Amino acid sequence: MSDQPTAGEELPVIARFEVRRRAYLAPDGTVARSLPQFAADTRVLVSLYRAMVLTRAFDLKAVSLQRTGRLGTYAPALGQEAVAVGVASAMLPEDVLLPSYRDNGALLWRGVKMEEILLFWGGDERGNDSSGPAHDFPPCIPVGSQAPHAAGVAYAFKLRREPRVAVCLFGDGATSKGDLWEAMNFAGVWQLPVVFIANNNQWAISVPLRLQTASATLAQKAIAAGFSGEQVDGNDVIAVRAAAERAVTAARSGKGPFFIEAVTYRLGDHTTADDAARYRPPEEVQAHWKEEPFARLRSYLVSQKAWGKSQEEELAGECQERVEAAVDRYLATGPRAPETMFDHLYAELPKAYRGQRDELQGTPRA
Amino acid sequence: MSDQPTAGEELPVIARFEVRRRAYLAPDGTVARSLPQFAADTRVLVSLYRAMVLTRAFDLKAVSLQRTGRLGTYAPALGQEAVAVGVASAMLPEDVLLPSYRDNGALLWRGVKMEEILLFWGGDERGNDSSGPAHDFPPCIPVGSQAPHAAGVAYAFKLRREPRVAVCLFGDGATSKGDLWEAMNFAGVWQLPVVFIANNNQWAISVPLRLQTASATLAQKAIAAGFSGEQVDGNDVIAVRAAAERAVTAARSGKGPFFIEAVTYRLGDHTTADDAARYRPPEEVQAHWKEEPFARLRSYLVSQKAWGKSQEEELAGECQERVEAAVDRYLATGPRAPETMFDHLYAELPKAYRGQRDELQGTPRA
Amino acid sequence: MTLVEAVNAALARALADDSNVVLLGEDIGVNGGVFRATIGLQQRFGRERVVDTPLAEALIGGLCVGMAAQGLKPVGEIQFMGFLYPCIDQLVNHASRLRHRTQGRLSCPMVLRVPHGAGIRAPEHHSESTEAMLAHIPGLRVVMPSSPERAYGLLLAAIRDPDPVIFLEPTRIYRAVKGQVEDNGEALPLDVAFVLREGRDVTLISWGAMVRETMAAADQLAAEHLDAEVIDLATLKPYDAETILASVAKTGRCVIVHEAARTGGFGAEIAASIAERALLSLLAPPVRITGYDTVIPLPRLEQHYMPSVGRIVAAARKVCQFS
Amino acid sequence: MTLVEAVNAALARALADDSNVVLLGEDIGVNGGVFRATIGLQQRFGRERVVDTPLAEALIGGLCVGMAAQGLKPVGEIQFMGFLYPCIDQLVNHASRLRHRTQGRLSCPMVLRVPHGAGIRAPEHHSESTEAMLAHIPGLRVVMPSSPERAYGLLLAAIRDPDPVIFLEPTRIYRAVKGQVEDNGEALPLDVAFVLREGRDVTLISWGAMVRETMAAADQLAAEHLDAEVIDLATLKPYDAETILASVAKTGRCVIVHEAARTGGFGAEIAASIAERALLSLLAPPVRITGYDTVIPLPRLEQHYMPSVGRIVAAARKVCQFS
Ligand SMILES: Cc1ncc(C[n+]2csc(CCOP(=O)(O)OP(=O)(O)O)c2C)c(N)n1
Ligand SMILES: Cc1ncc(C[n+]2csc(CCOP(=O)(O)OP(=O)(O)O)c2C)c(N)n1
Ligand SMILES: [Mg+2]
Ligand SMILES: [Mg+2]
Question: What is the ipTM of this complex?
Answer without folding.
Answer: 0.98
